[in-house]
Structure formats: C-alpha cells, structure tokens
Fold these 2 entries.
Entry 1:
Amino acid sequence: MSEGRDISDSVFNPDGRQSPTAAAIQRGTGRMLLSAGFASISELSLANGRRADLIAINSRGEIWIVEIKSSPADYLSDHKWHDYMAYCDRFYFAIPPDMDPGLVDETAGLMIADAWGAEIIREACAAKMSGARRKAVTLLLARSASLRLQSTIDPNANGI
C-alpha cells in the first residue's frame, strides 16, 4: 500500500456506483489477489441472490470472497455477510487503513487495503465447499468473466 494519487479519480471508480474509498479498496484488493495467484471479478451475483463485491479463484480451484467495507457505518449496517460463506472456501472483509480493525467480526478474515494494494492482517478460516457447489460457483465465475470480456471486445454483441 502507498500514499499518493487522489482516490476520487475516475480511474478508481469507473462505473460510479461505489464511493471513492470502496473503489480504491476494490482496486488494491484485486491487485493483492492477483499477486497471490488469484483471478478475481467484482460484483458477481450468487445463486442466493447476494452480490459478492469481489470473488476470486486460484489455479487449485480455491475460491475466496472479499466483502468491501468503506466505513464503520457501512460495516455495521451489513447483516447479510454470513450469506456469502457457503459460496467460498475463505471469506474476508477488506477495509481502509483508517478504519478500526477491532470492529470487524473475528470469525472472518480481514484485509487492510487502499488503491495500491492490500495486506491480510487476519487469515480467514478454511471451510471447503461441497463438490457440487464448487462446480456451480466455478462455472458462474468462468461464464461471468467470459461474458464481461466479450462485452469489452464487442459492446454491441448483446443484441445478437
């Protein structure tokens, strides 16, 4: 992680749906996941109707979900985070450096992140998914990532 550029820059918040802080956390966490061997995508809707802020898979098929919390109020108002745990092998929260880590439930993993990177400060407990759930989540990840890539290559293809 490092200091520097203004996180309100549109580079960090391309779709405008997130706060600048949440967008910065997402970017830095994605960088850390990539350096750890994970490919991640953001805002993935799961079979239970919840939308994961970041979901990542590595070459062994291990799946992590990272829920981004940009402030204490954001964290304290979230009562749905347990719903993500059945869809991953490890579950983490990612928070900004100025947020008190003591607020975050100790049963979840914890990352501190800014726009340039992230650091795991508490490992998540491993809870392996069933084979059928793993296959379903892996297929969802693969199809979603492929469709997103296709839409960048040919934005008008959705009308075919």
Entry 2:
Amino acid sequence: ALRIGFLCASGTPPATVIGPYWKQSLGAIGVELVLDVVDRTTYDSRVEQRDFDAICQDWRTHGEVDGYPVWHSRYA
C-alpha cells in the first residue's frame, strides 16, 4: 500500500482539520496518510530543508494580485 507522510505544524488547520479528513478519505482507497505533527520551529526547518513527503500551506497577499504571471506556464 502507498504510505505518505503529511507534515503539519501543531495547532494549525492542516493538523487539526485537513490532515484527519485527508487521512480518512485516502484510507478509503487504500492510501495510508501518516500525520507528522511537529512544533512550528521544527516545521519551518523541515520545510526549508525539503524534509517531507507532503505539506499544506497557504499564500496570503494584501490587496489584489494578478495571478496570470504567477500561475501561467509562459512565465515558468
């Protein structure tokens, strides 16, 4: 069976809501999601070192953002 580690910072929505939901949903199709909940300092360090299978992050901006140059492959 496929096993995926999901790195989360403790007390965040990925750790408390999203991760458990994905774990249950993926389990229904035979994928084991292992929640790896760590303190924020450890989380930041592991993200910087790219020491994870999967993470869930958000991106916040102030004001309007033109997404075209951010997401279009033309700018890759």
